[in-house]
Write a structure and sequence with these properties.
Helix content is about 80%, strand content about 0%. By secondary structure, it is an all-alpha fold. The protein contains 19 helices and no strands. Helix 5 crosses helix 6 and helix 5 packs antiparallel against helix 18 (about 395-430). It holds the Pfam family MFS_1.
Length: about 475
């Protein structure tokens, strides 16, 4: 079947559908980062404190993690096209409601609805693309879907800052309306109809456990990073999350209709691919957190200007993912991933040497190398993992990949932030400083970037053991 697909493959037939899916994914992914710059303005507009305003981001993230495990069943039961279109429609409507919010409580509720809609888009979009694209062309064509993941973290804050500067915080949500409408029209026109499986059974016990697993784990991790790991509230959420996770894994492994196909971890190349994806994500996510902080806290840049400094990363990521996709198709995963880890490793090591007077050209080169590495690795290891498993499981594997990435992202931010803070504190004690000084802050950045460099090098070593190609 795969070979027949390849023989009949036509870019003209497939490209509009893949671009349509990419637009839908970009719409959702931008909203994971676009709110960061808007927080102070929400705080002022609703006369609330920053912790309450932060819930507009936290609620969205928790809603994403709640619905992602259900996305495979929704696609099977109602058809992938209907589930994808319905999610975009609900996301667009909830964006309007967010813009019309008259209180922070209303905004948080509407952000939950937005997150529930958005969490379905990514897993179903990738699953549909795997069905559309023949195996021999997945690297280059799936690279298009990788673009939202690469550029959204960069575009989101810059776009948010610009919209707020020229208008108001409302436009952070209103910008979603034209994109959402265009996306819906394109879905109806270009996405093929998939027959729903009316016999698809819902894993009811798994569905009951889901709200206590990933949302509790992610919230517990965030609480631990913000208020301490031994706080009662932190421990309560983490313990409930871990216990529920153990029960959830047992249910999914033994069940005949699991929400998440956890048994796929028995496939060696699937596990290797996900492990490399997590390593890469932690390192890249860490860099995208600490480079802007360095630019703002040490170099005195505004949030908007530091965002602009990261734009070359998005451009380099585009180049990297385009090249990486072609290499993946023609030579295999490892020939794209190995150079990618090398580029990222060099970049992170260069960042470990910055000081208060480092030339901006040096920073720009480091950012470009980071983007190239990110583009060469990210989508390729994801494709490698998914392609190593049976295609019939794809609708249950993309949610697994997505929800695990949500947990890894939260854990990495919490862990790296704690590591950075501890490093600064230890340096202050060593030098007998009473408050954070520039040398102690720079020391914190240096050792954190060295840690990320070491992590990338571990990824490099693991990538040597990937199979060249998976069937």
């Amino acid at each position: 079947m795969e070979k027949d697909q390849a023989t009949n493959f036509s870019i003209g037939k497939i490209l509009p559908a893949v671009l349509t899916i990419a637009i839908g994914m970009l719409l959702v992914m931008m909203d994971t980062t676009i709110m960061n710059v808007a927080l102070p303005h929400l705080q002022s507009a609703f006369n609330t404190d920053i912790n309450t305003a932060q819930w507009s981001i936290t609620a969205y993230t928790l809603a994403l993690s709640l619905i992602i495990p259900m996305s495979g069943w929704l696609a099977d039961r109602f058809s992938a096209k209907k589930a994808f279109a319905g999610a975009i429609i609900l996301f667009t409507i909830s964006s309007i409601l967010c813009a019309l919010s008259t209180s922070i409580s209303e905004l948080i509720v509407f952000r939950v609805i937005q997150g529930l809609a958005g969490g379905v888009v990514g897993p179903i979009g990738i699953a549909m693309s795997f069905r559309l694209i023949p195996m021999e062309k997945r690297g280059s064509m799936m690279a298009i879907l990788g673009l939202p993941m690469l550029v959204a973290p960069t575009i989101g804050p810059v776009l948010s800052g610009w919209l707020i500067n020229i208008a108001s915080w409302h436009y952070v949500f209103l910008i979603n309306i034209p994109i959402g409408i265009i996306s819906i029209i394109l879905i109806l026109k270009f996405i093929p109809n998939y027959s729903p499986n009316k016999e698809s059974k819902l894993d009811k016990l798994g569905a009951l456990l889901t709200p206590f697993v990933f949302p509790f784990l992610i919230y517990g991790i965030n609480q631990g990073a913000a208020h301490g790991w031994l706080e009662t509230k932190t421990l309560l959420f983490l313990v409930i999350g871990v216990v529920a996770l153990i029960a959830f894994i047992r249910v999914e492994v033994k069940g005949s209709h699991p929400l998440l196909e956890i048994k796929a971890f028995k496939i060696g190349e699937f596990t290797k691919g996900l492990l490399l994806m997590w390593i890469n994500q932690i390192a890249i996510f860490g860099a995208m957190l600490f480079v802007p902080l360095y630019l703002q806290n040490v170099r005195g840049m505004s949030a908007f200007d530091s965002g602009l400094m990261m734009v070359p990363q998005a451009i380099a990521s585009f180049i990297g993912i385009t090249i990486g996709g072609r290499v993946y198709d023609q030579l295999g995963t490892k020939f794209a991933v190995i150079p990618g880890f090398i580029f990222s490793g060099i970049s992170l090591y260069l960042f470990s040497t910055v000081n208060a007077h480092t030339h901006y050209l040096f920073i720009a080169i480091s950012v470009v190398l980071l983007g190239m590495g990110q583009g060469l690795v990210g989508m390729q290891v994801n494709n490698h993992a998914l392609q190593s498993a049976p295609v019939k499981l794809i609708s249950r594997l993309t949610p697994l990949s997505n929800v695990m990435l949500q947990v890894v992202n939260s854990l990495s931010i919490a862990t790296l932030t704690a590591f950075m803070t501890t490093s600064v504190h230890h340096y202050e004690m060593k030098e007998n400083h009473n408050s954070p000084s520039l040398p102690s802050v720079l020391h914190g950045y240096h050792v954190t970037f060295l840690l990320l460099t070491a992590l990338i090098m571990i990824g490099f070593v693991f990538s040597l053991f990937l199979k060249r190609k998976v069937a």
